[in-house]
Write a structure and sequence with these properties.
Blueprint (H helix, E strand, L loop, with lengths): L1 E4 H15 L3 E5 L15 H5 L4 E3 L4 H13 L3 E5 L10 H8 L2 H4 L9 E6 L14 H5 L5 E4 L3 H13 L4 E6 L6 E4 L15 E4 L4 E5 L3 H13 L5 E5 L2 E3 L4 H10 L2 E8 L4 H13 L8 E5 L10 H4 L3 H12 L2
Parallel strand pairs: 2-3, 2-4, 4-5, 5-7, 6-7, 10-11, 10-13, 13-14
Antiparallel strand pairs: 1-8, 6-12, 9-11
Helix pairs in contact: 1-7, 3-4, 8-12
Length: 327
């Protein structure tokens, strides 16, 4: 076991993917000489060369379009979108081409493209640098969508995504890049937790908290605070957003009878809506209260000085827990 930050764990995972397959490439703005804005690709161009770690022009649509062509020729491109708010110029390529070619070709054309997107707020960034666009991609048939929340998952999940023959949108919680955790960097791949599986990160008996990415730590901190008041909250990290793995959630709700879904994206038509609908259908007779959501607001992402008022935090999560127990 090695202690490392999420950024370093992702770097190690990318390095392993480049080592494993000579047709794996990394491409994006400033990923080479600079090592990425968040230094996730630091040192990789130096070690693997400019033909494997490629600094591209500032053209997100061109990055994804080129990656699609490379994938058709047998390569495994890993594209970095520098900030979440920069992905929209590439949205047409992702939705109109990347997500559909496998289906249109009756499975004859595989597109093993990974698109890495740092997402969420919490770093005091300027406009277009803090967004939560995951629902756009989850709603797009033909894409797999995953997000890590800690260094251990970052290390394994990025390698599993690169090895997949499906296009994968890989969301990285940018505010968690510098948080450390233990990483088992010598465990064989067959022992890794499956890519498209949710995980219980804190068992509990009184209510269930479900979220992903940057909100997992917030939920754990909320559960620890609630324990001081005698409430035992279970915390589940979704990890995979498309396909959703809700079996652990169903099992948890059938025991606790209460569910609070937490995500940073706006509430309307966010992931919380789908989770609430499915849990209500499956666990209706086990629920002691309605499924509640703690989310961002239905507004454009605010200026940095206001983001603390926008982001779901411990107080808002605990307030939802209190409301759930009020029913």
């Amino acid at each position: 076991m090695t202690s490392m930050t999420l950024a370093k764990a992702l770097n190690a995972g990318l390095r392993s993917a480049l080592d494993t397959d000579s047709k794996t490439l990394i491409m994006g703005e400033d990923v080479g000489r600079l090592g990425g804005v968040f230094r996730v690709t630091d040192g990789l161009q130096k070690d693997f060369g400019e033909h494997r770690v490629i600094d591209t022009p500032l053209a997100e649509s061109g990055i994804i379009g080129t990656a699609i062509g490379l994938a058709m020729r047998g390569y495994r491109p890993i594209c970095e979108i520098q900030f979440d708010g920069f992905v929209y110029p590439a949205y047409d390529q992702i939705v109109s081409q990347l997500a559909k070619i496998h289906y249109r070709s009756h499975g004859q054309v595989k597109l093993p493209v990974v698109i890495r997107i740092p997402f969420g707020g919490g770093i005091g960034a300027v406009e277009h640098h803090s967004e939560s666009p995951e629902a756009y991609f989850v709603h797009t048939a033909g894409l797999k969508v995953v997000t890590c929340s800690n260094p251990a998952d970052g290390f394994t999940m990025i390698q599993q995504a690169v090895a997949s023959d499906d296009p994968v949108i890989f969301f990285e919680p940018k505010r968690r890049y510098w948080e450390k955790g233990e990483v088992s960097d010598e465990a064989p791949a067959e022992d890794w937790y499956p890519l498209h599986s949710s995980r219980v990160v804190r068992p509990g008996t009184d209510a269930t908290l479900v979220g992903y990415g940057p909100m997992v730590r917030t939920m754990v901190e909320s559960a620890e605070a609630a324990a001081e008041d005698g409430r035992d909250l279970e915390v589940i990290d979704l990890r995979t957003l498309s396909p959703l793995d809700l079996e652990p959630v169903y099992a948890s709700v059938e025991r606790t009878g209460r569910l609070i879904v937490v995500h940073e994206a706006p509430g309307t038509l966010g992931l919380g809506s789908e989770i609430a609908a499915r849990v209500t259908e499956r666990c209706f007779y086990s629920l002691e209260a309605p499924v509640l959501r703690v989310t961002g607001y239905d507004t454009p992402y605010p200026p940095s000085r206001l983001e603390d008022d926008y982001l779901p935090d411990l107080d808002r999560v605990l307030d939802a827990v209190d409301r759930s127990f009020g029913f």
